[in-house]
Fold each of these.
Amino acid sequence: MNMKKYTVAVVGAIGAVGQEMIRTLEQRNFPVKTLKPLDVPANKGKEILFNNERVKVDVAENGVFEDVDIAFFSAGGDASLELAPIAAKAGAIVVDNSSAWRMDPSVPLVVPEVNPEDVDWNKGIIANPNCSTIQMMVALKPIHNEYNIKRIVVSTYQAVSGSGKPGIDELSQQTKDYVVGKELISKTYPHQIAFNAIPHIDVFMENDYTKEEMKMVFETQKIMDKNIKVSPTAVRIPVFRSHSESINIETEKPFKVEDIIELLNNAPGVKLMDDPETNKYPLATVAEGKDDVYVGRIRRDESIENGLNMWVVADNLRKGAALNTIQIGELLIKRNLV
Ligand SMILES: NC(=O)c1ccc[n+]([C@@H]2O[C@H](COP(=O)([O-])OP(=O)(O)OC[C@H]3O[C@@H](n4cnc5c(N)ncnc54)[C@H](OP(=O)(O)O)[C@@H]3O)[C@@H](O)[C@H]2O)c1
């Protein structure tokens, strides 16, 4: 067994995902020799508690990556564009949470349950997919393997923590202000998020889809199969944590619903929660803080020949971000790449 320990940097260590990454490293007993929490200059010197030790935050800049084996990035696209190549050049393997490198053909885009072998061809940077894509891939890959999915229609119901700390703060403040009848101020979102549903995540593209929606199309094709057609609608809702998704698929081969249920029951990273008689189905509140992707409301789409509907929920900060990133780190160790 590989007992080596590693110098691990977390870039964006003060952020929502960065904090969750540090917790995940600790919870999963990642073989950390030295933890280097890195963030913006304003956060230099702040203390992070890691394995009962206080570790001071340093500035993420050229020169700090020289002794780093693995650098987990979650500081936004601009930081990743600038610093990931610097970290990789210094000898670290970067696992990046932003969208900066995801569609670069020289960068693997990895969900460990789906395409673990893709880490092998990394050239120093590996990308972590978008949170909405990750949970959909974990739920659909076992079905795709057996029945060949031709088309996916997906609508998301996404938590505000997907926009980091600013999203969390905006929903809290608006909820408090709403209750006492104060005017609601929107800075992070284009409209009031409290008690609302906003069909607009990230910027609009030329084809009138949002960038978040097109990420689900392109990333699904890169990770699972370039021939799959994806029709997405991404919606922000006033939930703090966990994204929910209504997913409809059309397969090439016919299936029995009970066989799909059996497949998902044995699928890695999936937790089946599907018992309509006892009101059991996945909920954001159930998935919060958990590692699994919860799947339920599985039923045949009776409007087409080989169609299926399901409801898929996962914690966007864990499997959607921090956990998937750390699992990629674990893969690097398992496959002797670091
Ligand atoms: N939240 C999610 O569900 C989710 C899921 C998947 C991927 N991601 C991605 O993960 C990244 C971080 O998201 P988040 O939600 O954690 O955001 P966040 O809460 O805003 O945290 C980002 C942290 O990085 C810091 N930072 C900014 N520029 C930096 C730089 N050049 N060097 C070092 N640190 C820097 C920020 O400092 P300041 O606050 O001072 O700028 C902040 O502390 C984003 O790229 C996001 O798209 C998020």
Amino acid sequence: MKSLRPHIKDYTRDALRAEFKRRGFSSYRADQVLSWVYRHGVEDFCEMKNLPIPLRTHLEEEWDIRSLVERKLETSIDGTRKLVLETHDKEVIEAVLIPEERRNTLCVSTQVGCPLACSFCATGALGLTRNLRTGEIVDQVLRARAVLPEEEVITNVVFMGMGEPLLNLSAVTQSVSLLTDPKALAMAPRRITVSTSGLVPQIRPLLEVGPINLAVSLHATTDEVRDELVPLNRRFPIDVLLGALRSEPLLSRKRPVFFEYTLMRDVNDSLEDAARLPRLLNGIPSKLNVIPMNPHPDAVYQPPDRKTCDAFAQVIHRAGMRVTLRRNRGSDIDAACGQLAAREVRGKATAPRASRSENLPPSSV
Ligand code: SF4
């Protein structure tokens, strides 16, 4: 059931100021409310002690503050943690917390399911239920922060969970505003990465939000293979995608693009593929992450053996490109790339994969 009240976490600071003013309250009170929500993690308007009583009463009676409920927290043997979260309308999404020596990275979801039907991805097998609201995206960060020890913080946020972020552009850019707002979560933009499978028209509008990082899921070096792995490629083939990344003003950002390349045995793991990659990405400041495929129960692909992965990365490295062969994190709890929602949401009705690939909303392209 849809909540009819406005939700405090759906508003950026500017939007909340305007809304407070419209309702007859001082706009600077919005800054105080944001501070309570994001700095102090308060989940009840009654606790916002520096607000005047009429505003507190109004908020309690007219607004919502809590969005996601933690349904399950799973911990992998490598320390990766998967938060299974429920929305007000009982949809289930997942966020993944990846602790490393000097940082805690949180991978957030932007949609319930995903319409893009990438053939190696468990989320893609679900189809799209709906976009997440801004508040449901930023609340993943608050819920994850709550499971960390008090002295630790979330240092990095990557929009690489369930869904294609650029199909939910407005909520994603508003979430980035809240993550980077000094009165809200105060993160540096360079600590935030938004990933796309190549929704070309939305890339420039996304990057107008600030100097965040862009990640592009490439996964293939020919259109023939990419059409199969990432059906969106039929609309935006490799040369169109890379041409857009080579054009101004993207180049003038002087920030590398992070390319993700999931290695699948006998599909895209040949040394010819490895040799093609530096040529394809020539002229784009790039960092390449090579990730062996994470198997999941719906998967039709398998990861290559370690020797093949090493040889693949070596060829790229020798060509002078920055390449990292990433290890799988959290695969034992289905928290790794391509595995999200493999268990929690399975069983819901899904459309056949072939038809879902044509399911992009017209406004998105
Ligand atoms: S890889 Fe990303 S864009 Fe493709 S189906 Fe999965 S969630 Fe969607």
